[in-house]
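in:
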């Protein structure tokens, strides 16, 4: 029991980003906190003598009464801040859980982030709203799903979809997805953003801690797949833009490197993906540098032609017409 008391204290300090020196008061809650060994353990963990001015059997009821007074408007000189018990976010490409609002964020709060499509001419996006602390979407709790449709045809990465999470003081979550190009918007309201007991929340946090290393590896693998997929797409785009501006040999070299990366993706060989990614990145960067050098040279040549014309005009300006009269 005493050992189990220590971990929540450490976790609370960690979540709040505080140290022992930041603590003003320690209030104990519940009859078991009268046990001397528990009091001593808390004293050592916090560096503070627990405040015994409030009956530990009554402290929760007192807090609830104060909260009721604040909500009703009878109590005006106290501000009570609630927090999100778990992180909130959406599923993104590769099954990744992308957090928009972190755990223990004070509410009310609002956060927006812009995403895009994963395929050319994608007509809709599915917004999968999740709650939890794991890196991958499948390991977290689903709060809701909705779809934003009628996205105009466009290459992948072009549409701008702004996802906004808004949590009010009652913990009600409104999630919206808006196409910034058309202004079309879709929204979902989640009235119970948690619906979990304290024990379930604690279990989810501990699961995330216990699986941190494995989750980190899975997330890195998903991020790598997303990165190389995007690189293949960018390479095709660069080659289309540069095909008539660089040598055929350079184009074939880039195409070969791209095909080798695609083969590594199909084989699901992570080591080869990294190696082929780096090789293709170098080739594409060199091609891009050449493009900029050509553009700079053309601009400089145009500037030189303009200067030559200006000099010619200036020379002509030295000739002045004048009237004269002959005198005998």
């Amino acid at each position: 029991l005493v050992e189990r008391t220590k971990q929540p204290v450490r976790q609370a300090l960690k979540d709040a980003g505080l140290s022992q020196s930041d603590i003003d008061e320690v209030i104990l809650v519940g009859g078991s906190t009268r046990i001397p060994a528990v009091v001593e353990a808390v004293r050592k963990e916090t560096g503070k003598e627990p405040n015994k001015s409030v009956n530990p059997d009554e402290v929760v009821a007192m807090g609830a009464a104060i909260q009721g007074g604040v909500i009703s408007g009878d109590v005006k000189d106290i501000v009570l801040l609630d927090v999100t018990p778990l992180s909130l976010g959406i599923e993104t490409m590769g099954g990744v859980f992308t957090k928009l609002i972190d755990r223990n964020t004070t509410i009310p709060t609002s956060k927006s982030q812009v995403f895009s499509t994963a395929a050319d001419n994608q007509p809709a996006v599915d917004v999968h709203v999740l709650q939890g602390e794991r890196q991958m979407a499948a390991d977290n709790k689903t709060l809701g799903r909705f779809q934003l449709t009628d996205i105009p045809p466009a290459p992948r990465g072009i549409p701008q979809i702004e996802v906004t999470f808004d949590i009010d003081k009652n913990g009600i979550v409104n999630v919206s997805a808006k196409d910034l190009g058309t202004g079309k918007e879709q929204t979902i309201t989640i009235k119970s953003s948690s619906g979990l007991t304290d024990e379930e929340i604690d279990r989810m946090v501990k699961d995330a801690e216990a699986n941190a290393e494995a989750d980190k590896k899975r997330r890195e693998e998903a991020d790598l797949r997303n990165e190389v997929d995007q690189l293949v797409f960018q390479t095709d785009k660069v080659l289309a833009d540069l095909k008539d501006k660089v040598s055929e040999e350079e184009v074939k070299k880039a195409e070969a490197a791209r095909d080798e990366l695609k083969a590594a993706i199909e084989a699901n060989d992570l080591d080869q993906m990294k190696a082929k990614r780096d090789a293709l990145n170098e080739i594409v960067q060199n091609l891009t540098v050449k493009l900029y050098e050509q553009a700079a040279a053309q601009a400089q040549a145009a500037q030189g032609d303009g200067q030559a014309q200006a000099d010619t005009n200036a020379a002509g300006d030295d000739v002045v017409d004048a009237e004269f009269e002959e005198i005998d």
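note: The two ends are 129 Å apart (CA to CA).
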